[in-house]
Each structure stands twice: as structure tokens, then as C-alpha cells.
Amino acid sequence: xxxxxxxxxxxxxxxxxxxxxxxxxxxxxxxxxxxxxxxxxxxxxxxxxxxxxxxxxxxxxxxxxxxxxxxxxxxxxxxxxxxxxxxxxxxxxxxxxxxxxxxxxxxxxxxxxxxxxxxxxxx
Amino acid sequence: xxxxxxxxxxxxxxxxxxxxxxxxxxxxxxxxxxxxxxxxxxxxxxxxxxxxxxxxxxxxxxxxxxxxxxxxxxxxxxxxxxxxxxxxxxxxxxxxxxxxxxxxxxxxxxxxxxxxxxxxxxxxxxxxxxxxx
Lengths: 123, 133
Description:
The complex is a heterodimer.
Chain A: H1 2-17, H2 22-33, H3 38-62, H4 68-114
Chain B: H1 17-37, H2 42-51, H3 56-81, H4 93-109, H5 113-132
């Protein structure tokens, strides 16, 4: 289990850093390939994202690549949205939420397959 | 980090009402998706930031900065609701950090068009399995 967890983390990190949608990998692994309930899998993914994001934002911040004014504006609305989102996750429960997540994956997957651009972050 | 006023870029938004409305709606959507599904805020944040005048590369960097506080709040709410405990993710973090380094390095080396196809196919497969479960 420990090795598998290490590999799952590794792949999530690689795919995340390449801008391919790494956020989905760990949830897919936990939800489909282990017995973890959907909402717990999502929560674990949220926690998992934090240290990597702190490191990335710190580096980008030092390089002065962050437009703080814009970021703050979007993030404030996002915080409100997060509260709404979790209210709905709670309301819908894990089973329905996993269907929504599945639907999103199909859409994102199709977009990714037919996208003509190279790797997003590379541009 | 927010108080680092000096870091605020000179690049200003063409601050029309339209942009403010777009920012509010898209910002809300980023939060809702991220809170509801535990991932996926980036797919809204990146196009929004590009629309606000950032380049693709800048948009990706700034999207992480947007999603970080949203994720911290979301994770805190998941903790409060009792869906997770703080230690649940620890086992995945070492692999994740190493993976990020590898991914960042690979990004400079290859333009992974085929990788996108493979991963896209995997996402469709996983999505269908979740839907049919």
C-alpha cells in the first residue's frame, strides 16, 4: 500500500506540474482503485495540493510573476464559491458528487484528447 | 503573502464593469468547482486569467496563487465536516513533491502532445467507470 501511495503521489505531482490536470489523478486513484468514499478522496486531494502549491507560489512570487491585485480579486470570490460548493457536496452526498466528478472527467478528457496545443504551461 | 504590495504588478486591468462581472462570476465558479469536486478550479481560472490579459504561462502561475487560498478554505471545511483528518494526505505528499519536480523538468524537455492524448483517454475511461458504478 505504501509503495502504491508513493507512486500515486508521484504521478499526481508529475501530471499536475505539466499542467495536464493533476488534481484529478489522486481522486481517480483513491475513488476508483481504493475503497475510499468520494468526499474523503476529494478532501485528501485538497490537502495534498497545499504544500506543492505553497512551494510553487513562493517561487513564482520571488520571480515576481504573481499579479497580486488580480489574484486577490478572483480568490475572494472563489472563497465564497468554495463555501457554496461544499454546501452542495454536503447536500448531494458522495454518490451523486462522484457522478458529477465522473461527468467532468469525461468532458475534460475529450477536450484534452482533441486539444491541438502542446502542453499548456509551455506556452 | 497578500500584503506584499510591492509585488503588485503595474499591469492594470482595463477596469470596466464587464471585467469586474466576469471576475466575480468566474471566481465564484472556480470556488464552487474546487469546493464541490475537490479539484478542477484551474480549468476555469486559467482561461479567466488569460481573458484578463495574462499570457498562458502567467495564467498558469497565477491560477495556482488563486486556487491556493480557496483550497486551504475548502480543506478546512472538509476537516470541520469530518470528511477527512489532517493526516490522511501525508502518505502521498513525498511522492507528490518529487513528482512536481520531475514534471517541471519534463515540461522544459518535451511537448507532450501524445501524453495529453493518453491522459485524456485515461480521464474518459475513469469518468465513464465512475458514472457507471
